Structures are given as structure tokens and as C-alpha cells.
Amino acid sequence: MSGGYKQQPGSGSGEIRKDGKRVAGKQSFAPPGSGGSRPVMKPRDLDFIPEMVGGKEKQPAGAHIHDRARTGTIVGKSIPLVDANAKVTGQAWYGDDVRLPNEIIGRIVRSPHHYAKVVSIDTSKAEALPGVIAVATGDDAPNKFGVLPVTKDEHAMAVEKVRHVGDLVACVAAVDEATAREAVALIEVEYEVLDSIHDMKKGLEDVDEPIHWRGKYHVGSTNVQKRVFQEFGDRSMVENPNAMYHGKWKYMGVNHGFTEPHAVVAHWDSNGRLQLYTPQQVPHYAHRALATVLDVPMHQVNVIRTFVGGGFGGKSDPFPHEMCAAILARKAGRPVRITFDREEVFWVNRGRHPSHIEVQMYADEEARISGFDIDALIDGGGFASFGHVTSYYNGVLATAPYELGSFHYTGARVWTNKPASGAMRGHGAVNTRTAVEVGLDDMSEQLQVDPIDLRLANLLPPHSRTISGFRITSNGMRQALQEVRKGSDWDNKFRKMPLGKGIGIGCGFFISGSGLPIHWDPNKFPHATVHIQIDMDGGVTVHTGAADIGQGSTTAVAQVVAEVLALPIEMIHVRSHESDTSPVDLGSYSSRVTFMNANAAIRAALEIKEKLLNAAWDTLGYHPDTLVLNDRRIYYKHDPAIGMSYLEALHKAQEDRGALISSGAYRSPPMGGVHKGAAAGLAPAYSFSAYVAEVEVDVETGLIKCTDVWAAHDCGKALNPLAVEGQIIGSCHMGLGQVLTEQMVYGRTGHLQNPNLLDYKIPSVHEMPNVTPIIIESCDPEGPFGAKEAGEGPLLPILPAVVNAVYDAIGIRINDLPLTPDKVWAAIAKKMKVEGIDDPADLPVPRLDFSELQKKLEQRASEHEIRDKRRQRSEDTDAYVNGVLFGFDPNLPLEDQVEGWKSADKPEPEQLAELGLAGKAWLKQEQRHMGGER
Amino acid sequence: MLMPPFELHKPTSVEEACEIASQLLESGQEFDWIAGGTDIIPNYKWHINTKPHVISLAGLEGVSTISMTEIGCMARLHDISVSSEVHPLIAEAASKVASSLIRRNATLGGNLCLDTRCFWYNQAEEWRSSIDWCHKADCGTGADCRVIPNQNTLCVATYQGDIAPNLMVLDATVHLIGPNGARDMPLTEFYQLDGMTRNVLQPGEFMLKVTLPSDVSEWVGAYRKLRLRESWDFPEAGAAAAWKKGDKSTLRVATTALESIPRRHDEEVAESGGDIKSICDAVYNNTKPVNNTSLPPRYRRNMIKVLIKRACEE
Question: Is the CB of residue A651 less than 8 Å from the CB of residue A679?
Fold first, then answer.
């Protein structure tokens, strides 16, 4: 057989009569297709089969449970995303591309006031306007909703109060947009204006009319939505530190800035079911909220996720405008489409919280990190959104990658009369991470050591536990640091460059899927489910609810199925748009999709594989253990001539059964501590990253230009390196925006001054540095083929790396993001005054002379490197908990080892006096302790 | 966003354009001119001071000249920026305007007649209603200025064009035409210090072309623009300088984006005796930007010293 093994099954040509008559029992079917256009089998690609199972792919981190499922087909290979063609040819259908027959246009009436009671709404003039089909107000939908079950505080439209300029008051639907706009202007609303709050610090104070009222759990009569206290470890360790950093940081709010504004189409079909088209990251929560608000059972709602033109967290809440469209469509009996203007996108916001974060960090005589004190006050705007979680993340996601002597966190989220803050790429971790990484830079300067070595000598190893009880599995932090040090030529540049040029380091740590799902756990439902169905044509239909928001989840699912079944990716068809056909998936947030969905997909594919192999066993007589899957064929591993095509095996497997169907699910293992808030930040795996940024600072204007970034990210295993590199580069862009130019500016009157993409300064291509992505593969034991997240973690390190590089360039630390040129210039001017310098060209630049500690750190780091390699490869499987570096025995309970070891979730009375800004929220009592709201 | 309804007139000659303008004026109907549309269309989509009629200059014949001594009002900024005919300073300035896409449409006339900008003004209608409007677009309410409160006589919106200061330092003359005939004047006299009046254009009048002195090719200079991003952004401050090659005593300096008009600083230059630092300080002292663009006024004011210094470097 020349050229390889043929793929076409059956059908010798002699079996069909030339005269056109049928042979008894033989019908001339059109060939069902061999799968792919190549007629012969490709040889196995050993470069992409792990060495543990006979291939050539190196496995420095050791074997993985999915090794045997590898076929060398596609995992680890750079391929374009499977929906790329649809996008570049304009065939992808985004929210506003949906056109249903007879559709009408909805517009929303929005509050012109920051905070007001709605006294009355008169819709009569609007209703009388020719062309207006339906008008709705808050009375039409009194049920509350919210993304988190514990903080449902939103209505479709204002009930009683409006809470920020742009808050929804009413909505109209008309035959066209012009009429709808005209009708909006005709709706008369009488307001009673209330005293609004814009400064988050004011949110801590008691007021007459808090923005929301939480009944017996309300904290005093303040605007505190959530307060958090966490303390772990031995607090006495921070006394008499060898080095200490104290930074008070201010962060402006930032918006996701996705390309596609929100758009929704709602349609009640002929059977009275709601069909809702929306670009959602989390269709399932929208599904739940719609059922609640519209008072219909969930099975009467079909949420159809359109293509999503960017999400980044900004399309993960159920949104009031989705409710409005459904309400209007129900009233009108016609499909209703609502598309936002960019101002409306900013008004619905859910971007990163404006924050005041105070960080105190301590290092001891061994340059061990003896403690973190973090206090984070975050501005939630008018609604809770994801804020309950954000309040925790601002603290707990700083408990790694470093081994800490103690950890103390106070956090508070307050309501203010602004558009709501929520989840945004790097949720809750970004701002604190920036402060902490800059603090390490500052402490390394005090200790006169290299900041990379300081980090390398204080890392938690693989398979360890953080101080707060998070379970670290794979950990590529050390390798990431080493790679960026080498790639950037760090040792020849750091503290050695001339004024105006600088280099800086920053690290990141992020969850790969939240271990505790928002809605799910009591019932032990899986976090992700994938269904696979293969009919006689051989095409593989994969049903998943994973929402592809551009990150490539559809591609990841298709890839792992193609890998397991050894099929070309063109044969895998992912169906993920409709809740009617998709298994429930918790959505694209917390960087969970690749980890959870691909795991579920592997399980489903393995079930199909087993069926195919059993069929081949029947035919070939060889046990499945001795059969190999490769490029649409199944054959005996010692003699490829003994085999059959995939299609033949499939048809055999379908005998008397029809289509092959399987279902695979993933649920994260039980883990974590028992203290209040222990679940926040728990994840089945964590990603690690280290970036080095190089900047140029114009000392006369304060303008910063980031020129180069070396970006190492540990994603466990790059299923698709091209996609991972894209995520790294995209994260750099987004993080650079927050650190250099992007900010939501609330002016003198509290109005958002820049709700448009000209004045909200997202960096352009000119501002992009050369980014060198470096993929670190630590091979996570529980990740699909070893993979972890790569979508959010890569954002974190760019911010501190740039801030630290600016210090290296001009010797000034600025704790107020973004680093717009006016702030940098003002800081330079201030420093010149202090130093008595007239010309900024004479500014001193920091230089570094190593202390004796440097050698010690290098020594410790190299010892830890050996330790980490052994642990990574499971050559050392002893327990390791945070504290071993400080001499603890990992096998004894921590509280038994040191007097004063604490694990607390609320402050002791004697601590109250010394709490930071956000900690002040603990000075108030909840209503139930005040005798109120019983 | 939806464009408000208006009637579009498309004359094919200067005479016809003036004729249409006259007719509209006589019948008391308001109108706007549109050239490349990159300034007016975003404002219209935000429903800012819209008019029922719009006259397009895009179809006029013979108004797109690009040469060393003459540039037509409809010359596209992209064409100017890549032209080898035009003065290099003008090409440089044109290349720094907005983005490459916008420069393909935007025109010299539009850039010179750019509407003044202010973050209380360049906003959607709903947004402006939430601040009860402002002086520049008061929707009949007589609203106060939001930048300088408690007054509604002066508009302090900022002129943020890039090309005007460069033409000023090259001593350009603008040629206007309208129902009452043609007239010309130095560009330095074209602008009028008020964010609403902006310039001397009378109703029905539009800018036909800009001419430059015959010896302009002997002049050299530079333009320095302050902005956060290398694309898209309007200048937060800008300084142009030019001098006759080899003769710094002929130095002229002009600035933009600091107030409602661009301005040439002949007095400051004359009093400085040729000392660049004195010029910088004098302009700094005479400039008081207000808080209505992206960067704070104090910073913009200080940066003008750096920008002038750098523009004057050879």
C-alpha cells in the first residue's frame, strides 16, 4: 500500500453492478466521508507524545494522568482559534447582529441624578406617541436579582430609588430607534434628590439614607456592603523587622473597554418561551436571573449566547437591560432589540474597583517575609455585583507565591453613587498585587539585595499550602523568574542604566477556576459538563455551555476532543450557544473554563474512545490496551497493518445503537480551610507569572514609555501556545492601560467625565512594548493534559513591573495609578525641590551595592530550587505548609507549634483601635447587635 | 447612537455653495458646513448643537490644492502629510493629527475651523442633561459654564487643532468666501477668543484656502505635541516654532490647545531678545489653561515651556 494506510471504509468497487441494478443486500450509499480530506493516515507525531508513554515530548515535571490519552494530534500545537474564520470574514454574529422578523427597538430611560427617590413616573405621553409599542417601569419587575445569591440588590428598573447617573428608570420599545429616543424624552419622572456619596471614605460613615439596606446584617447605618477580616500566623514575627515597607496606594477605577457594546434581543416564541440573545460570559446566571425576574420557570427560557466581542469580566453579571428587553418583548408581543451606546457601557460598568490600599510588609534578619498587613477599601459603586468576592480577593490572593510569617487583612467594600464596580480580568488581585510587588522591590533595596533573588529565596514550593490554607499543586514561579531574568539580561541592567531608563520585576499569582462555584455546591453538581455525540458521518458534535468570549474556550474543548480521539480538528464541531442544547456551565469567569471544561471534555472523549476501541477489539481481535489511535485509524500497536479506519470502528460501535453519545463532567476536589471566607480564593490550581518591564521616562514631561516586556507565565501546559501567547500579549496591553493611562474620572460634580473611548485612554498600538512571551509548563497534576489558566494571571505582573522600572529609571516611587505624566512630573518636581536640583537631568538614580544577605539569599534559592524540583516530580511527597521556612514541622498543627499562632476572621476588641482605613468598618456593629431590624 | 435628521446639500462649485448658503440664510434656516466630517459627525451623533441643514464641501472642484505656497480647504490631512510639495513643518503637523483612518477623511479647512472642545460639552445628550447642560450647548436654558461656574458669558472650551500654530509661524494667510464675497487675512487674525464664536467666519462664510509667503521654503521649524497616546489624541498642549534657515533672530513661536484659540507669541519672542528660556517663561506667564481636557491645566501650562524649548531646538 503506497503512501500509507487508506482511510475510506469498506466498499470494494466490484460489489456494485455495472448495469445499475442492486445486488441483494447491497445498496450504493454515498460514502459517508473519511474524515478530513487526506486519503491516507499521517504517521504518529512522536514530538507531541509524552516520553512517559513512548513519545519524545520532554516531561521535566514528571508523568501526568492524561499522558495515555495523548495521541500527538493537536495538543501543544499552535493553531488558529476555530472561530477565527467566522470573525475575520465578518460572519460571526454578535449581539447587535441578531435580526428577527418584526423586531422593534428598545431604549432605556436613565437617571440624570446621582441619588434620588423616584416619586412618580408618567409614561402617558410616551405611550401616546405613534410608533411606540410598549413602555415598562420598575413596577413591571419587582423581583430582585444579582450575580451572587447572597447579594441580590438589583432590579430591572428602579424600584423606589435611583443610585447613580445612568441608573435604569424605565424603558420603551418603538418601531425604530428615532421613535424610541423621542419616547424616552417624553417620559416624565419626578425625583426627590437625596444626598449622594462619591468619596469611598465617606461610605464608612453612618448616614440617614444608605444606598441599600441589608436589614439585620446592615453595618450600622453606613454604606459598607461587605467587610472582611483575616489574620493568620504569628503576629509577633513582624516586630523589630530588618526591613519594612509601608505604602498607601490609590487606584482609579478602570473599565474593561471591550470592543462590542452590550446588546440584547429578546423574543417570546410561539409557545410562550423566552428566547434571549445576548453576548454573555455567564449565560447560566443570566438564565437564572431572567427566570426570577420574569417569574417563569427556567425551562421556559432559552438563553442564546451570541459571539462575544470581548468580555474581560464586564459581561458576566446578569444585566438589567436583558430583563428590560424581555419585559418589553413580552408586552409588545414582538422581538425587542436593545443596543448600548458607549456611555451606557460605562454606566453599567462592573469594571475594576477604585481602591485605597495600604500595605505594610516586613522582612526579618534572614530576609524572610515575616508579615503582610493589607488594608483595602474598595469603591463598589451603586450595586453589589461580584463585590462580595472582590472584598476577599483583595487580600487573600496575596498569600502566595511567597512564604509568609504572618498575614493580616482588613477589607471593606462600600456603596457609592457611581456605576457599579465588579469583576475585571485579574479580579480583585491586581491592585493589591501591585502594592505588594512594589513593596518587595523597596524592601530588597533596604536589604541591599537583588529583588529577584529576594523572591527566589522566599517562594512556596510545588505541592504546598499557603498561610490561608490554599492548596498549591504545580508551581512554575521559580522557573518563570529565572527565565525573565535571563531573557531580559537583568543582571547587566538592573540599577545600572542611566537616568530615564529603567527595568523592573513583578510577579503574579492567580486562581485557575474558583473551587467553590457561586450557585452550585450543596447539590454537588459538576462545575462543567460536556456532551459528545457522533453519528454515522463521523463528525463529532460537542455540546458545552462554555462561553467563548474570544479567549478560545471553544478551541480548547475542540482540541482536547480531537487529541483523545486522534481526529483532525475540522471533524470536531462545538455547539455552545444555546442553553436548550448545552449542558449547564458556570461560565467564563475566574479563569475556570480551560481547566474545568477541558477536563470534562477529556472524560467525555475517553468514554467515546472506549466504545470505539471495544468495537475495534470485536473486529480485530486485539485487546484495547494493545490498540493505537492515530489520525482516523485504530490499529494494533505492533503492526499498523492490522487495523481499521475510525469510521469503520464507529459504524461497528453504532450497530443496533445509533449515535455514540457520552457525557463527561468535572467537579473540583474538596479542599481548603474551615474559617469564614476560606472558600474565597480556593482553586483546584493556581497560575504563576513573572514579568520584567523596561521603560523610558522623559524626565522633563513625565511621559513613560514601556519599551520591552519579558513575560513568563506558568500555564501548566500550553494546549495551544499561540493562544497562550495571545493572552499574555493582550494582558500586557490591558495592564499597561491601568498602570499608565486608563482611568474612570469622576469630576467635581461626581459625573463620569470620560465615558467614551477618546477620553478613556486605552493604549494604542504605538504604546505597546515589544512583548516576549515565555511559556512555563509546570504540568498541573489535575489540569487537562497539565493545563492551567492563562487568561487573567498574565495581567497582574505588568503593573508592578512598570512601577518598579520607573523607580529604577528616576528613583521615584509613585503609589497612585495610573502613572499619568502629570503625576510623574509633579513627583519629579517635588524631588528636585527636596534635592535642590534645577535641572531634572541631574536627578540621582538608584544604584545597588549588595549586602552580605545577597549571598545568603542566593544560597537559599539554590537549595530551594533542588527542593522544588524534587517536589514537582513527586520525588519528595512530604507535606509542606507555609511556615516550614520559619522552622515549622509540616506534620503538626500550626497552632501547636508556636504560641501566638492565630487564625481569625474577626478582630479582637483590643485590635479595633489600630485597624486601617477599611478596618474602620469593624468599628460599627451590625443592626442585629444594635437591637435593630430584628 | 443615531444621527439626528438633517438635509444634506451637495454643491459642486464654490458659487453654488455660496448660493445655497445665501438661500438658507434668507429663509432663516440654520446650517453647518461639513468637509471631512471627522469633527462634526461625532458631535452630531451626540446631538450637540445640530442644525436642520448641512452643506457639504466635499464635491467642490479645485479646493484640494497642495503646494508649498497654497493648500486648499478640502486637502486631506493624509495627502498633506505624505506630500513632498508641502512645507515639511505642515506635513509633520498633519501627520500628528488623530489617527491614520481619520487623516484619510479629515481636511485642512476642518482642522483649522475645528470646534473647541471641553469635557462638559463633548458628551452624549443624556450625559449633558444630567449636568443641566452648559453655556456652549445650553439647549435654550441659559445654562452656566461648567468649567468656570456662575457665569454664562464666556465659553472657555479649548481649541485643540494641530496645524494652526504651524501655519501661524509660517505666516500663513487664510482666504474666506461667502455670500458677501471673498476676503483674506493673516491666520493669526482669524481666531477670536471665545469658545463659541471661535473665529471671524460670518454666517454663510467658509474657508477656501490657505496661502503661504513665497519664501516659505527657506523657513525651517518644528512642532511638538503633548498627548498621552501617539494616535487618536488631540493635543493637550502644542508648540510650533519656525525661523529662516540659519537666522534664529527670525524665530516665531505659536501654541495650541491652551485656550479657546491658537496663538502666535510675537510679543514674548520680541521681548526675550532671542533667549529661548525667556520665551518659555513669558508664554508660561501669559497662558492660563483651564480644566476641560484630559490632563490637568497646571501640568499643561508647565509643559508649554518644555514643548517650546524642544520646538526651538535645531
Answer: no
Range of the structural domain that residue A565 is part of: 51-92+526-666
- Kindly calculate the radius of gyration of chain A based on its CA atoms and give it in whole angstroms: 29
Question: What pLDDT shows up at residue A15?
Answer: 54
Residues A108 and A62 grouped into a single domain: no
Residue A36, pLDDT score: 54
CATH code, domain carrying A160? 3.90.1170.50
Question: What average pLDDT does the structure give for chain B?
Answer: 96
Residues A599-624: tens digit of each pLDDT:
999 999 999 999 999 999 999 999 99
∠ CA A681-A684-A687, nearest 5°, is: 75
Across the interface, whether the CB atoms of A165 and B130 are under 8 A apart is answered yes
Q: Is residue B280 part of a domain?
A: yes
CB contact under 8 A, A825 and B5: no
B56 forms beta bridges with B34
User: Which segments within chain B are labelled E, that is strand?
Assistant: 7-9, 31-34, 53-56, 70-72, 173-178, 181-186, 206-211, 219-226, 237-244, 247-256, 263-264
In a domain, A28, yes or no: no
CA distance A294 to A290: 6
ipTM for the predicted complex: 0.97
* Cβ <8 Å between A754 and B119: yes
Looking at residue A10, what is its pLDDT?
46
The tally of domains found in chain B comes to 1
Would you say residue B139 lies in a domain?
Answer: no
**CA of A188, closest CA in chain B: separation in Å?**
14
Q: For chain A, what is the mean pLDDT?
A: 94
Counting every residue written for chain A, the total comes to 934
pLDDT one-digit tens code per residue, B145-202: 999 989 999 999 999 999 999 999 999 999 999 999 999 999 999 999 999 999 999 9
Nearest-CA distance A179 → chain B (Å): 11
For residue A819, the model assigns a pLDDT of 98
Give the Cβ contact number of residue B294 at 10 Å: 23
**What is the length of chain B?**
314
Share of chain B above pLDDT 70, in %: 100
Cα A765-A771-A772 angle, rounded to 5 deg: 155
Statement to judge: residues A771 and A859 lie in one domain: yes
- DSSP per-residue codes, B47-110: T-S--SEEEE-TT-TT---B-SSEEETT-BHHHHHH-SSS-HHHHHHHHTSS-HHHHHH-BHHH
- Asked if the structure places residue A148 within a domain, the reply is yes
Q: Is B123 on the interface with A (CB under 8 A)?
A: yes
Contact B301, B233 (CB under 8 A): no
Collapsing DSSP to helix, strand or coil, A402 comes out as strand
Q: Which domain CATH number covers A578? A: 3.30.365.10
Contacts of A496 (CB under 8 A, 6+ apart): A847
Query: What local confidence, expressed as pLDDT, does residue A271 receive?
Result: 96
Site from B96, B229, B230, B309 to mutate, A interface, most A CB atoms within 10 angstroms:
B229
Residue B227 is part of a domain; what is its CATH number? Answer: 3.30.390.50
Comparing CB atoms, the residue among B126, B131, B294 nearest residue A343 is B126
**Cell output for A110:** 436613565
Whether pLDDT at B69 is above 90: yes
Pairing of strands A336-339, A301-305: unpaired
The cell for A37 is: 480530506
List, for chain A, all residue ranges whose pLDDT scores fall below the cut of 70.
Answer: 1-3, 7-18, 20-37, 518-523, 933-934
Whether B263 maps to a domain, the answer reads yes
CA A616, chain centre distance (Å): 42
Domain that holds residue B282: 221-312
Q: Is B166 contained in some domain? A: no
Please judge whether A826 and B228 are an interchain contact, meaning their C-beta atoms are less than 8 angstroms apart: no
Which residues are CB-contacts of A699 (< 8 A; sequence separation ≥ 6)?
A499, A500, A810, A828, A840, A841, A843
